[in-house]
Design goal:
- It holds the Pfam family Glyco_hydro_1.
- This protein is an alpha/beta fold.
- It contains 15 helices and 14 strands.
- It has one domain (about 15-480): TIM Barrel.
- The protein starts with 12 loop residues before the first strand and ends in a 6-residue tail after the last helix.
């Protein structure tokens, strides 16, 4: 007789997730080259628009390289994990982390992206970080490319718009796979690969003012990343027996605004356009529905012999994704538009929103988990989920972030329901276990962490770390394997 799952598996991987460009700092230390993220300036509130696409022109990059530093570039400094990683990892261990998601900054290993030899100081830094994690029994989950393409590849090749970058990425992956084969089991090839369609610069190091046909360039670059991901998946399995290599999607579950069939169809199309990326990674082929999209938008994917075969032969071991919100879409003009969500959409009257206007939908996470597992039947890993909020430090130094606890609690409840539904969920890494620089606006006031970092939007502060109330709460969640919330 079959029995239902009642909770998380005993080997469930609880932890937190970060990105090198938002965390590390040390942008010009020990031989590191500039990355695309190092050119992204802080966006003051008065200048913010709805999309925060983080596009940048070739002219502006030239001005910055010529010495125009009139803007602040907070991702260059991060929160100084580069010097404080031992302190930070000790705090993660105190919470009981089983896994820590981080990225390797490609430009720390190959400063220009196409260097003949890797930078030994960069390799040694990550050796030190992995050793510190393993000392506490924390598994590293490493993203190879997390919005940090070496700037040299942008200037020389226009990033992933050029097929030349495939070989350079494979060389980089082979270097780190070989170096860390005894230290890292879990790998992700590209962070939120679909974001390249929203910001070619962020996702692919592509300068849009250097291309004539934007959509053609975007999907050609994505093809290059799909081929590279498959090649690296093959390579990782060869170099690290037993390794687990996954893809990563910014999941955007779409609801129809009404039961009008036109709205339902609109939501279906939006979902297909989001799942296209995991279809290629997990099923090993381009889905048929993209043929019409390519034809209607004059997109012709240039393939080389063997591309389709390697994509088909080397699919990912698991599917990971970020989940912050759902979208509500309509085929008609009705409905109030919300600008806070990652890609906009119609306001959902049944949902509350964060301080930044992101609609909060815990049940949507259960829906997403079931959707992905029904479609792919591969293990799932939630590698980003969290609440960006304004935290108030009390006179005694305490931070009572009950709103963050409630947000995470409601999402974990729905995760457990999905496991009971039969979904194979292997782990959960809350985004930003320590406060870090915002991806979209490079601000510090949008805080996600269980650990507070004394640093403000202007770059002022001591960088001292302190625990929020959510720190002890999450420690309890991990200790009880999600039973005590």
């Amino acid at each position: 007789m079959a029995t239902a799952n009642t909770g998380f598996p005993n080997n469930f991987l609880w932890g937190g997730a970060t990105a090198a460009n938002q965390l590390e700092g040390g942008f010009d230390l020990d031989g590191k080259g500039l990355s695309t993220a190092d050119m992204i300036a802080h966006v003051p509130k008065a200048l913010r628009k709805g999309d925060h696409s983080m596009e940048i022109s070739s002219r502006r990059i030239a001005e910055i390289l010529a010495g125009d530093l009139s803007e602040r570039f907070p991702k260059r400094e991060g929160v100084d994990f580069y010097h404080r990683y031992k302190e930070d990892i000790a705090l993660f261990a105190e919470m009981g982390f089983k896994v820590f998601r981080m990225s390797i900054n490609w430009a720390r290993i190959f400063p220009n992206g196409d260097d003949a030899e890797p930078n030994e100081a960069g390799l040694q830094f990550y050796d030190n970080v992995f050793d510190e994690l393993l000392k506490y029994g924390i598994e590293p989950l490493v993203t190879l490319s997390h919005y940090e393409t070496p700037l040299g590849l942008t200037l020389k090749y226009n990033g992933w718009a050029s097929r030349e970058v495939i070989g350079l990425y494979v060389k980089y992956a082979e270097t780190v796979f070989t170096r860390y084969r005894n230290k890292v089991k879990y790998w992700l090839t590209f962070n939120e690969i679909n974001v390249l369609t929203m910001s070619p610069y962020t996702g692919g190091g592509i300068l849009s003012d250097k291309v004539e046909h934007r959509l053609q360039t975007i999907y050609q670059a994505l093809h290059h990343q799909f081929v590279a991901s498959a090649m690296v998946t093959k390579l990782g399995h060869e170099i690290i027996p037993g390794s687990q290599i996954g893809c990563m999607l910014a999941r955007l579950e779409s609801y129809p605004h009404t039961c009008n069939p036109e709205d339902v169809r609109k939501a279906q199309v939006e979902s297909q356009m989001n799942l296209f990326f995991t279809d290629v990674h997990a099923r090993g082929e381009y889905p048929n529905y993209m043929n019409r999209y390519f034809a209607e938008n004059n997109i012709v994917i240039a393939r080389e012999p063997g591309d389709d075969e390697i994509i088909a032969a080397h699919t990912v071991d698991f599917i990971s994704f970020s989940y912050y919100m759902t979208l509500t879409v309509t085929a008609g003009p009705e409905g109030d538009v919300t600008g806070g969500n990652l890609v906009g959409g119609v306001k959902n009257p049944y949902l509350e929103a964060s301080d930044w206007g992101w609609q909060i939908d815990p049940v949507g996470l259960r829906i997403t988990l079931n959707t992905l597992y029904d479609r792919y039947r591969k293990p799932l890993f939630i590698v980003e989920n969290g609440l960006g909020a304004i935290d108030r430090v009390e006179a005694d130094g305490s931070i009572h972030d009950t709103y963050r606890i409630d947000y995470l609690k409601q999402h974990i409840i729905q995760m457990k329901e999905a496991v009971r539904d039969g979904v194979e969920l292997i782990g959960y890494t809350a985004w930003g276990p320590i406060d870090l620089v915002s991806m979209s606006t490079s601000e510090m006031s949008k805080r996600y962490g269980f650990i507070y970092v004394d640093l403000d939007d202007e770059g002022k502060g001591t960088l001292a770390r302190s625990k929020k109330d959510s720190f002890d709460w999450y420690k309890q969640v991990i200790e009880s394997n999600g039973e005590v919330l």
